[in-house]
Task: inverse folding
C-alpha cells in the first residue's frame, strides 16, 4: 500500500470525528437523565474525546507534506489501516446503539429502561476498554511518526509491545459482534430475568437491525478482507498476515446461535469447483478458519456421515493460546483425512510468514543489526525488514530473502544470542517453531516447494472463530471444536460449555518462563490461572469430563523441567527429574488439586508432534477412548 492510500484513509477520519461528536452529545443527554451511570458515562465521554483528539492529530500529521520527514513505512500503513477500521467499526457501533434511544419511543420503555436494555454497565465497560485500546494504538502510531527513518518506524512497530497494542485492536474489532451477544446476555439480566447464567439469551427487536447495519457490515467486511475472502476488495487493502502479529480472521456468525454446537454445520458446501482460489472454499464458510485447519469438514469427506448426529461425541478443545489445539486438529486430519495438494498450497503463505516474522522478531529483540555495526549483517537485516513481497496466492519466498534469513540465522553472534535466550529464558516472545522454520528458509524458497505434513503442523496462525473436524474412530463418531485460546477469543468458550460432551484441554507443559504473546506475562502462570478459572466455572456441569493433554513433550528438556518444578504451583517434587513420566504425573496431580471439590472428572494424557504427524492424534484418541464415559 502506498503512502497516498494512507492519506485517503486519513480523510475518513473527518467523518468519524462527526460521529464521535454526535455520540458524545447523546451520552451527555443520557448522563443528565440517568445519574446512576454518571461516572461511567463521564468516563466514556472522556475516552471518546481523547480518541477524537488522537484521530485529528493523526489526520493532521499524515496530511502534512513530508519534507525531510520519513514517508510512512509499509508497516505503518498497515497498522494505521487496522486502527482506522477498528475505530470506525467501534465508534459507529456505539453510535448505532445510542441511536436506539431516539428510536425507541414506540415500545413504551422509559429512558431508564432503554439505558438498561441498550447500554448497561458491562457494555459500557467493554466500550471503555476498546476505546482505551484504540487510543493506545493511535498514540503508538503518532509516536512512531517522530522517528527519523521509515526503517526506524518499522522497527518501533515491530517491537513486541507495539505488536501487542495493534493486535489488541485487531482482536477487539474481530470480537465486536461478540459484544452484541454479551450485551444481549447482560440486558436479559437488567430487564429482570434472574441470573445470566441460568437464562438463555433473548433476542431483541433491534438485533436484526444491528446485523444489517452499516456498522456490522463494516466489521464484517473488514474481517472478510483480512481473511482474503471479499471478492470486491482491492487486494492492497488486505493487511498482510503476520505471525501472531497479524492473523487471519475467521468469521463466525454473530448471533446468539453463533457458537451453538448443535447448529454447527456438518458439511461445508462445496463450491462445485467453480472458484479457482484454493483457499476460498474454506474461507467462504462464515465459521471456518482459513488456513488454520484446512481440513474443516470437507464436503467430499470419505468418513461415514450417516446417523452421526445421535452418537457423535462433541469434544470442545480449549486451552491457552499456542498450546496446540489447532495442531491437534491438523494431526487428526493427517490421521483421518490427509491433506491433498491443493490444501497444502493454502499453507504456503502462512508458513513463509512464520519464517519471515520469526526472523524479524529475532533481529529486533537481539539488536543483531546494530551491535557496533560490525556484525556485517546490515544489508541482510535491511532486506528482511523492508521486504513487502505479497505472499498471498501461493507466492513463495524470494531467494534473496531466504538467503538473508539463512545468513542472519547462521551468523555465529546470532546463534550465541539464541542459545543464551534458550538457556536463560530472556523475556521476549518467540513462536514455538522458530528454529524449525529458520532452519527451513532455503527450502521454502524452492520454486516447487509444497508444505509437508510437518511444515503444516509446525506453522502457527492464531485461531479466531470456531473450527470443526469430524471423523469416526473405533466405531464411534467424534466432532472436535477448535476455539481460539487468545484472551479475546475466550468469551466464546462460555457459550460453548453447555454443549460439549467432553472438554479437551491442551496444556503446554513447556511454557514456564516464556512470555505470553497475549499480555506479556509468564505463559505458564497465565495457563494455570485459566485452568483454575475454567474448571471451577459455574457453567461447567458437575459431572463434566475434562481430558488434559500435556503438549510439546518433545521440548521437555532438563532445563525446562527445572523451570517448571521451580514454580510455586509445581513445587514439592522430590523424585528423579530426568523421568518425564514421573514429572508429568506430578504435574497432573497438581492440576487436579486446582479443581474444587469433586465436581468434575479429569483424565490426563500427553502428545507430541515430534516423531510423526499422526502421533498427536493417536495419543489424544487413546486417552479419549480410555474414558469410561465414552
Ligand atoms: N515442538 C512441538 N511443537 C508443538 C507441539 N504441539 C504444538 N506445537 C507447536 O505449537 C504451536 C501451537 O500452535 P496451535 O496449535 O496453532 O496453537 P493453538 O492452541 O491453536 O493457539 P490459538 O489458536 O492461538 O488458541 C505451533 O507452532 C505448533 O507447531 C509439540 O508437541 N511439539
Ligand atoms: Mg488455534
Result:
Amino acid at each position: 500500500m502506498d503512502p497516498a492510500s494512507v492519506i485517503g484513509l486519513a480523510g475518513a477520519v473527518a467523518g468519524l470525528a462527526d460521529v464521535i461528536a454526535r455520540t458524545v452529545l447523546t451520552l451527555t443527554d443520557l448522563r443528565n437523565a440517568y445519574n446512576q451511570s454518571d461516572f461511567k458515562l463521564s468516563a466514556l465521554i472522556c475516552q471518546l474525546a481523547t480518541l477524537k483528539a488522537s484521530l485529528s492529530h493523526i489526520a493532521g500529521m499524515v496530511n502534512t507534506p513530508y519534507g525531510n520527514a520519513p514517508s510512512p513505512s509499509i508497516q505503518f500503513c498497515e497498522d494505521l489501516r487496522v486502527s482506522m477500521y477498528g475505530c470506525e467499526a467501534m465508534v459507529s457501533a456505539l453510535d448505532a446503539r445510542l441511536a436506539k434511544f431516539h428510536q425507541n419511543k414506540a415500545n413504551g420503555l422509559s429512558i431508564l429502561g432503554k439505558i438498561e436494555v441498550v447500554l448497561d454497565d458491562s457494555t459500557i465497560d467493554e466500550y471503555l476498554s476498546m476505546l482505551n485500546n484504540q487510543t493506545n494504538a493511535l498514540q503508538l502510531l503518532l509516536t512512531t511518526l517522530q522517528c527519523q527513518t521509515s526503517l526506524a518506524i518499522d522497527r518501533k512497530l515491530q517491537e513486541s509491545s507495539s505488536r501487542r497494542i495493534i493486535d489488541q485492536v485487531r482482536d477487539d474489532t474481530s470480537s465486536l459482534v461478540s459484544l452484541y451477544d454479551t450485551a444481549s446476555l447482560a440486558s436479559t439480566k437488567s430487564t429482570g430475568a434472574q441470573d445470566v447464567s441460568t437464562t438463555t439469551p433473548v433476542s431483541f427487536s433491534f438485533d436484526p437491525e444491528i446485523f444489517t447495519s452499516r456498522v456490522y457490515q463494516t466489521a464484517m467486511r473488514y474481517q472478510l478482507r483480512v481473511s482474503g475472502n471479499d471478492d470486491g476488495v482491492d487486494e492492497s487493502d488486505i493487511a498482510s498476515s503476520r505471525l501472531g502479529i497479524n492473523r487471519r480472521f475467521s468469521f463466525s456468525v454473530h448471533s446468539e446461535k453463533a457458537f451453538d454446537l448443535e447448529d454447527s454445520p456438518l458439511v461445508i458446501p462445496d463450491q462445485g469447483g467453480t472458484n479457482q482460489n484454493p483457499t476460498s472454499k474454506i474461507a467462504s464458510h462464515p465459521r471456518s478458519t482459513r488456513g488454520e485447519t484446512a481440513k474443516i469438514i470437507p464436503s467430499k469427506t470419505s468418513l461415514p456421515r450417516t446417523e452421526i448426529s445421535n452418537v457423535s461425541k462433541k469434544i470442545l478443545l480449549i486451552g491457552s493460546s499456542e498450546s496446540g489445539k489447532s495442531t491437534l486438529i491438523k494431526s487428526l486430519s493427517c490421521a483421518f483425512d490427509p491433506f491433498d495438494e491443493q490444501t497444502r498450497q493454502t499453507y504456503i503463505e502462512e508458513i513463509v510468514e512464520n519464517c519471515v516474522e520469526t526472523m524479524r522478531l529475532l533481529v529486533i529483540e537481539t539488536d543483531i543489526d546494530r551491535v557496533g555495526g560490525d556484525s556485517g549483517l546490515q544489508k541482510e537485516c535491511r532486506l528482511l525488514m523492508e521486504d513487502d513481497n505479497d505472499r498471498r496466492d501461493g507466492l513463495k519466498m524470494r531467494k534473496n530473502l531466504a538467503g538473508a534469513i539463512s545468513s542472519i540465522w547462521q551468523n555465529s553472534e546470532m546463534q550465541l544470542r539464541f542459545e543464551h535466550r534458550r538457556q536463560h529464558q530472556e523475556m521476549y516472545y518467540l513462536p514455538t517453531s522458530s528454529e524449525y522454520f529458520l532452519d527451513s528458509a532455503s527450502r521454502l524458497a524452492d520454486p516447487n516447494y509444497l508444505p509437508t505434513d510437518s511444515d503444516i503442523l509446525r506453522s502457527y496462525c492464531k485461531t479466531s472463530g470456531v473450527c470443526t473436524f469430524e471423523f469416526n474412530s473405533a466405531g464411534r463418531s467424534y466432532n472436535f471444536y477448535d476455539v481460539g485460546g487468545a484472551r479475546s477469543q475466550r468469551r466464546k468458550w462460555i457459550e460453548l460449555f453447555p454443549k460439549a460432551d467432553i472438554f479437551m484441554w491442551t496444556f503446554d507443559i513447556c511454557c514456564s518462563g516464556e512470555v505470553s504473546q497475549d499480555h506479556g506475562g509468564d505463559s505458564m502462570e497465565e495457563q494455570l490461572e485459566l485452568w483454575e478459572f475454567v474448571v471451577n466455572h459455574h457453567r461447567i456441569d458437575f459431572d463434566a469430563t475434562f481430558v488434559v493433554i500435556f503438549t510439546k513433550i518433545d521440548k521437555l528438556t532438563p532445563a525446562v523441567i527445572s523451570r517448571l518444578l521451580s514454580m510455586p504451583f509445581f513445587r514439592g517434587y522430590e523424585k528423579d527429574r530426568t523421568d518425564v513420566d514421573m514429572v508429568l504425573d506430578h504435574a497432573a496431580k497438581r492440576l487436579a488439586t486446582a479443581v474444587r471439590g469433586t465436581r468434575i472428572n479429569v483424565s490426563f494424557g500427553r502428545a507430541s508432534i515430534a516423531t510423526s504427524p499422526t502421533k498427536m492424534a493417536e495419543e489424544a484418541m487413546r486417552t479419549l477412548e480410555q474414558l469410561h464415559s465414552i
Q: What stands out?
A: The domain at 313-336+465-625 is CATH 3.40.50.300 (Rossmann fold).
